[in-house]
């Protein structure tokens, strides 16, 4: 299995990568600010569920097929961008709501969870990143490669939960104050829409 040195190095690299500004942590930030810390934590769980799919895809070689196929990569990329634009449209149409005792209840936990999954799974660059990143820490002499890749994917998810969960808690702590004002709610929804559109454009224009 994995050596202790490789495991610690991988965890450190994973935490640094999770801290780097990107579509996923920005997504957690905006959802937490809009709907509260609970919503951000649910989105984080959704994103990490998507990472499970990417880990399995790399272990089974599917990610290599996506990387090699222009059609597959482009199709997944445009599906992801279309979903982000759909979220932007929803944010633009959203109206201010009365403060609730249960933060994040307005968005719906199940809906937020699936947002996180779709956001992550429809980003082909995550699979390609995993395909390039995970094998660097694999040692065929230490056992089954598939098992090692799945373990590394699990460690990356742990690092992601810690970092993104912290982002959700910090952003959610100011959400209660923001949601007391209907005007601020509208502004936050408009900002979220701009973020979603920006992420969609970034995804569409990203090279392979």
Can you walk through the features of this model?
With 208 residues, the protein is mainly alpha-helical. The protein has one domain. The chain has 9 helices and no strands. It has helices spanning 4-19, 23-35, 37-60, 62-68, 70-93, 109-121, 124-133, 145-178, 182-205. The longest helix has 34 residues, at 145-178. Residues 98-106 have low confidence and may be disordered.
Helix content: over 70%
Shape: globular
- What is the terminal separation in angstroms? 32 Å
Strand content: under 5%
**How big is the Rg?**
18 Å
Mean pLDDT: 79
Order of helices and strands: HHHHHHHHH
Kindly name the structural category.
mainly alpha
The biggest beta sheet, please?
none
Count of discrete alpha- or pi-helical segments spanning 4 or more residues? 9
* Secondary structure: number of strands: 0
Explain briefly what this protein structure is.
By secondary structure, this protein is mainly α. The chain is built from nine helices and no strands. About 4% of the residues have low confidence.
Which secondary structure elements does this structure contain, and how are they paired or packed?
Blueprint: H1 4-19, H2 23-35, H3 37-60, H4 62-68, H5 70-93, H6 109-121, H7 124-133, H8 145-178, H9 182-205
Helix pairs in contact: 1-8, 2-3, 2-8, 2-9, 3-6, 3-7, 3-8, 4-5, 4-7, 5-9
């Amino acid at each position: 299995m994995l050596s202790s040195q490789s495991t610690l190095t991988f965890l450190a690299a994973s935490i640094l990568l999770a801290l780097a500004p990107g579509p996923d942590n920005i997504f957690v930030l905006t959802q937490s600010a809009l709907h509260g810390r609970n919503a951000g934590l649910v989105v984080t769980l959704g994103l990490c569920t998507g990472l499970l799919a990417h880990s399995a895809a790399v272990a089974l070689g599917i990610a290599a097929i996506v990387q090699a196929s222009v059609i597959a990569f482009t199709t997944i990329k445009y599906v992801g961008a279309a979903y982000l634009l759909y979220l932007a449209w929803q944010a633009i149409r959203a109206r201010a709501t009365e403060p609730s005792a249960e933060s994040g209840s307005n968005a719906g936990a199940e809906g937020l969870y699936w947002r996180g999954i779709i956001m992550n799974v429809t980003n082909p660059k995550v699979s390609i990143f995993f395909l390039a990143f995970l094998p660097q820490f694999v040692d065929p002499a230490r056992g089954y490669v598939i098992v090692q890749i799945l373990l590394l994917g699990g460690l990356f998810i742990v690092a992601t939960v810690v970092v993104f969960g912290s982002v959700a808690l910090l952003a959610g702590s100011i959400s209660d104050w923001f949601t007391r004002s209907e005007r601020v709610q509208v502004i936050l929804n408009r900002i979220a829409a701009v973020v979603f559109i920006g992420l969609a454009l970034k995804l569409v224009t990203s090279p392979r």
